[in-house]
Amino acid sequence: MAWHLDGFSTAEIAEAMSLEQAAVLQNLSRARRTLK
Questions:
Q1: Which residues are CB-neighbours of 12 under 8 A, at least 6 positions away?
Q2: Which of 31, 32, 1 lies closest to 17, judged by CA?
């Protein structure tokens, strides 16, 4: 989530972490839910 807050796109995060973009989106969704 920190990468997203720093302004990186989900595509950039996925590439940097060797993940699929869908996995990044799912992880961000889970993080947002946890913060609620």
A1: 3
A2: 1
